[in-house]
Every structure is written in structure tokens, then in C-alpha cells.
Amino acid sequence: MNNVQKGKLGEKIANKYLLSKGFKILDKNYKTRYGEIDLIAQKKEKITFVEVKLRSNLNYGYPCEAVNFKKQNKIRNVATEYINKNKLENLEYSFDVIEVYLKDKKINHIKNAF
Predict the structure, then answer these.
(1) 68: closest CA among 59, 80, 57, 60?
(2) Which class for 59: exposed (0-12), middle (13-18), buried (19 or more C-beta within 10 A)?
(3) pLDDT for residue 58
(4) Which tens digits make up the pLDDT trace of 27-82?
(5) 17, 30, 70, 82: least CB-packed within 10 angstroms?
(6) How many angstroms separate the CA atoms of 15 and 39, rounded?
(7) pLDDT value at residue 3
(8) What pLDDT does 14 receive?
(9) b/e 65-89 (16+ beta carbons within 10 angstroms → b)
(10) Residue 15 is inside which H or E element, if any?
(11) Is residue 95 within 8 Å of residue 112, measured between CB atoms?
């Protein structure tokens, strides 16, 4: 399985997880000139921008460690465009990371990660 396939698998698993927790998925792989957000979900009056990271092992560190300052800024910029485009200024927001551990079949949802 190549990295693109792994990424899609991680997003599929995270999508299913969020649905099971009562979230509504508003968008997947939302792209702008600034970058991409894997999943945009809503639960009640809160919009959650989700970065999904899948690992089959920890040779390259924990998944959340890949969401560095530069990546966080890209996600914030994309989120700002999404909020403005969809006129969602009056809602709450969070930036979450969902780690998917393929080998252990484990999901770690880091709420308000940044």
C-alpha cells in the first residue's frame, strides 16, 4: 500500500469514527490555495477541522508529531477560507488530530490539538 492509499484508508477510518461519535461530516479533502483539510465535521454548534494521520509503525514517530507548526498554519488558513465562504463565523471551532494506528487497530482522537 502506497502513502496515498494509506492516507485514504486513515481518512475512511477517521470518518467512520466521527460518525459513530455523533458528528456530521461537512466536507472531505477540502482544498484551497493554502492547503487541504482532511475532514470537516460538525457536532451541535461546533465545527471541527480534522487532520488525520495514519501509522503502521512508529519508525517515524507518533502521528501527531507530523502536525508541526507549518502544517497547523496551513490548516488554520484553509479553515479561515472555509468559514468565510460558508458564512460560519458565529459557530465555535476546534482543530483536532485523529491518529490511526493500523497495526493495533487503535484510534486516538486529540481534541483541540492546536
Answers:
(1) 60
(2) exposed
(3) 93
(4) 999 999 999 999 999 999 999 999 999 999 999 899 999 999 999 999 999 999 99
(5) 70
(6) 7
(7) 86
(8) 98
(9) eebeeeeeebbbebbeebbeeeebe
(10) helix 3-20
(11) yes
What CATH number should be reported for the domain holding residue 92? 3.40.1350.10
DSSP code at position 102: T
Tally of domains within the chain: 1
pLDDT at 1: 83
Count of positions (residues) in the chain: 114
What does the pLDDT read at residue 76? 98
Asked if pLDDT for residue 13 goes beyond 90, the answer is yes
43 and 24 Cβ atoms separated by less than 8 Å: yes
| The model's pTM | 0.95
**What does the alpha-carbon distance between residue 16 and residue 23 come to, in Å, rounded to a whole number?**
10
Range of the domain at 9: 3-110
What is the C-alpha to C-alpha distance for residues 32 and 112, in angstroms, rounded to an integer?
Answer: 22
Strands 24-32 and 35-43: antiparallel
Q: What single letter denotes the amino acid at residue 106?
A: K
